[in-house]
Amino acid sequence: MPVARSAPSDAPALHSGALGTSDIAFFVVSAAAPLTVMAGVAPLAILLGGIGAPVGYLLAGITLAVFAVGFTTMSRHVSSGGAFYAYITRGLGPAAGIGAALLALIGYNGMEIGVYGLLGTATQDTTHALLGADIPWLPVSLAGLLLIWYGGYRSIHFGAKLLGVLLIAETGILVLLAIGVLADGGARGLSLASFTPGNVLVPGTAAVLAFAFAAFTGFESTVIYRREARDPDRTVPRATYVAVGFLGLFYAFVVWIAIQAFGDAEVVAAAGADPAGLFFAAITTYVGDWAADAMHVLIVTSVLASLLAFHNAINRYALALAEEGVLPKALARVHPRHGSPYVAGLAQTVLGAAVVLAFAAAGADPYGQLLLWVNTPGMLGLLALQLLAALAIPLYFRRVSHGEGVLRTVAAPVTAAVLLATAIVLVITHLDLFTGASTTVNTALAALVPIVFLIGLALARRLRQRRPDIYARFGTEPEPAQPLKEPA
């Protein structure tokens, strides 16, 4: 039995008890960037899937809720801040766990760093729409890197409150649109035709499902905040279900509202004519020009909220891996006042700046290449981690004594594994819809996920030979320093 790692009792640590259910849910939902997903991606889902598109988001939400059953059950038994890789290690072994750890680092970094390209282009669009000014994207993205670094440097309590405000604002503008459409009765009267089998069971639904699963990326990060949660055995599962339930229902509702704004017979043509302007046209018609201006601004803040949420998740993964002894020990340092993994945050910011500057130096398009080419393997990597975790959960519970039911430990994770495998196939087969790139580029982007995992397996083999002590205890919970209490 490996000896647990320990840290000096007076060493700075993450703030214990800083986050409640709503705080953690804010992090997760903010990472999904609901306003950006709706205004930027939902019109394409309508264009491809027709008026049955809302059901695609409901089905994705149901799939991930099934996954969450086993995932949150395991969170009560494995409390490591490494989440995905810790679960996979316990079920599939240290080699698979180390491969998963590398995949998680690449996946979460890909999901964040690519979005700096979106920040640049979204800010360009906003300043052009509101001021008629054209600004370069690179200074905006670099300024965003500094803002996000500062947000991660401050306490997790600060980040949770900031994300709460930003999330309420971005969802609020969509609720305002919904109120306007419902009060007016829509373009042709309110209709529930979107939910009839004839409009759902169409060839385009597969593409909608691919978009829908991508819209939930990052929801599983609830467990990363376990060490900072109040009563984590209750708070983490609640936050997970709240996040999945909210996103699934809210996405479906807002897409349905957009359809009602134009009418069942007209919305597909409207989405095809101007997908980027669909939501702006709707809110202008039903609320007013001022609301469209506000939506432009709130898309920028939505992107910033997503960046901060992913930045905090990445920092905690790096902290956990540094505590494992896999990453440099310096990344495990926690700020004595803010209780933040500030060295990991600085390292992540430097990495992000290097990638952004490299794409800029190559003359790459910030949206079509920096965002889509970096985000896509990140999204696929996180979906692959969900699948591996779903496979690991029943294997783990077969090996340990527990009082959990078969539904939570076997039925739900096995069902989730089948559904997630189907989702991955859907995303890969429709990758051109995400990237707009050639088959060669799409193949390379998809291939990065198994390549990274295989590199992780090779690193695991090397670690087993050269550092067998670290390999043997990988994925077990270290004994962190005595936690700091969040100051009043």
UniProtKB/TrEMBL annotation:
Membrane topology field: Multi-pass membrane protein
A GO CC annotation given for this chain: membrane
Residues annotated as domain Amino acid permease/ SLC12A: 28-463
Gene3D superfamilies per UniProt: Amino acid/polyamine transporter I (1.20.1740.10)
Superkingdom of source: Bacteria
Transmembrane residue ranges: 24-48, 54-72, 84-108, 128-150, 162-181, 201-219, 239-259, 294-314, 342-364, 370-397, 409-429, 441-460
Keywords tagged on the record: Membrane, Transmembrane, Transmembrane helix
Record-linked InterPro entries: AA-permease/SLC12A_dom, APC_superfamily
Compartments where found: Membrane
GO biological process, one term: transmembrane transport
Official protein name in the record: APC family permease
Source species: Streptomyces cupreus
